[in-house]
Amino acid sequence: MKELERIKAEKERGEKEIRQLENRQKILLNKQHDAQRRLRTHRLIERGAILEGVLPLAPDLPGEEVKTFLIALAHLPGAAELADKIPRSGGKP
User: Fold this and answer.
1) Count of CB atoms situated within 10 Å of the CB of 51
2) What is the mean pLDDT of the chain?
């Protein structure tokens, strides 16, 4: 009988440890998601500021017009070649 109780107690300890590890995993995944979201938000704000600095009319234009303007710029002769020369590490051409 004592053997059965010992096994049952050990099983309960194991299940408790599993629940704790699962909760810890959820916490870590949430932290990772939050960190990724913060990085993306920072990147978007930074690039928006660059866009407004380069294109002074950008703050007054609706988003769709800014998008249309950027697409038009991307289709200008030489734009693809210039884009290919930009280092992918985030540096400047």
Assistant:
1) 14
2) 90
User: Which residues have C-beta within 8 Å of that of residue 86, sequence separation ≥ 6?
Assistant: 92, 93
Question: Is the CB of residue 93 less than 8 Å from the CB of residue 86?
Answer: yes
| CA 56 – CA 72 distance, rounded (Å) | 17
List all residues 6 or more positions away from 44 whose beta carbon is below 8 Å from its beta carbon. none
CA angle, 30 then 34 then 39, to 5°: 150
Q: What is the dihedral of CA 38, 43, 46, 52, to 10 degrees?
A: -120
Instruction: List, for residues 31-54, the tens digit of each pLDDT value.
Output: 999 999 999 999 999 999 999 898
Query: Is the pTM for the entire model greater than 0.70?
Result: no
d(CA 11, CA 5): 10
Q: Are 34 and 40 in contact (CB under 8 A)?
A: no
